[in-house]
Design goal:
Layout (H helix, E strand, L loop, with lengths): L3 H25 L14 H7 L15 H10 L7 H28 L2 H13 L15 H12 L2 H6 L1 H12 L10 H6 L5 H25 L1 H6 L14 H23 L1 H4 L4 H22 L7 H21 L4 H18 L5 H4 L4 H12 L6 E6 L3 E6 H4 L3
Antiparallel strand pairs: 1-2
Length: 396
Amino acid sequence: MPIEKPISNRVWVFVSGFLYVLIIFARDWKAINRIGADTGYTYVPDAVNGNLSVLLKPFPEYFEISGRATAEIVALFPIQYHAIASSSVVNLIWVALALFIFAMIYQETNNRVLASGAGLVLIVIPHAMESSLGNIGMIKFPLTAAVAIAFCSSRAIIKYPKLITAVALLVGLSQPILFVTALPLVWFFRSQDRDLRRKVTTLLTVVFATLIIQVLKVGVGVAARGRSGSRVMSLWQGMGLFWYSGIFFPILFCLIIIIVNSLSPFRNSKYNKLRFMLCASTIALSASSYVLGGIADRYFVAPMTLAWICGLLLLHDFIIVFSKLKIYALAISLIFVVVPVAKWFEAGWFLTTGPTWTSEVDRGREICATQPESEIELLVSPNSSAIVECSQLIKK
């Protein structure tokens, strides 16, 4: 009956979302009562002390609305719960973005298993463990991954134009490299479908309007040079597989997928075009992130997410083309996924070292009891601190 499919889909989405929640909180559990040093506690005092105009306060050079909007929610909670609140809100945003990816991939593939798997990729992506899990300042990177995936699906653009436009606007006003994910949009603009072209035109307008806003704020020279003062461009001795894989895997893997896509067995495979789109965005995003930001784990999250989803789509077509090798392909793929996910599952030292936030607030309140007009330095993981006014600490 016609009513069965929507109900079934709602249950599938609910179960997927519930699974995402369990996994993301399991990954972040050791860090849930701590605040990472990057971006640290910066946004929350601004949200507590200011009005909504702080949403347009740059950090440090460009607009970063996603993190500041999240801080506005955290500021509603008592200060002793700010770490738990920020981690929890960020985790739920990641889950929402995973469901967003689910919707985009489902619209393009009409395959709930693939859609659930694509959403799950964002939740388990290993390179998020270093500094991204539960971190307000890193929301822009999973947001970038989500909107880049949406840009690769013409069906999703037609189905969810307002949602994708809103997310694109948020991403564009949160970081300045959204434009490199617009390659698929340029391709879709050539379509004979007037409705698609109109919606793509709106998205391209958002992408380049926000780019202009960010460049004008940062300055053309700084925008072209990137974070020249703080970026690390060279490999270092003993950097390890985590860093090597983050730098090289997305580009190399996508180049391999492009070659495979061009081979006769896969040339007309079901998701050939979608893989090309995702690979183009992955390569552009990975290369531009390195040029502008250098080697940093936060820049690995979006390219890795896109690359893994490309791999998932290739696996689907592979087991159709080579059905006799299905078991072997699934087993090998499972090993390549489970090993890094298991190794880099829990939040890393950058997010889990140092005292808990609630213990620091308690310590600060003891000091503020005798110095109520002063400011107090609270330790933030791993080796940083946040300056908080005693009036905030002793406020009931």
